[in-house]
Amino acid sequence: MNMKKIALTLCLAFAAFIGAQAQNVCYIDTEEILGTVPEYQRVQDQLNKLADSYRTTLEDELNAVDKLYKDYQNRKASLSAAERQRLEEEIITKERAVKTKQNTYFGEDGVMANKSEELLAPIKERLQAAIDAVAYRYNCSLIIDLAITTGIVYRDSRYDLTDEVIEYLNK
User: Fold this and answer.
1) What is the pLDDT of residue 111?
2) Which end of the chain, N or C, is more open, meaning fewer C-beta atoms within 10 Å of its C-beta?
């Protein structure tokens, strides 16, 4: 009986040792990594400028709708029912057009999302290739990205591969 317990304990210890050896969990911080990539900064600047121009266009159009609405409110009492109806429909139509344009620019499948994907795809591919190479070199079975993972309460810097990925990207 005692021998069975010892054998079972040894088997469990060996299995735990093998399991621990087979899994190497590491982490990176893609924000830090991308901060060192000049092309990423240029793309971000380009996307910000484009977004600002779209925002300005939308603000101008919203201000025009707002002005039209205020003018309508000031003149409402002196307008006929038909004129009020026409102006109300015009305001609603212009407001909808601005919302449609906003969705066209900033929606899930909008111009900004497509442009972002187009410009960032080559950088993401290079980053993923660097992560894959470093993961292989350090025998990692899992790499966690601190930039997008919440709830990390402890991390051991021995398993931080951020600098290694940066070094690989700079080759």
Assistant:
1) 96
2) N
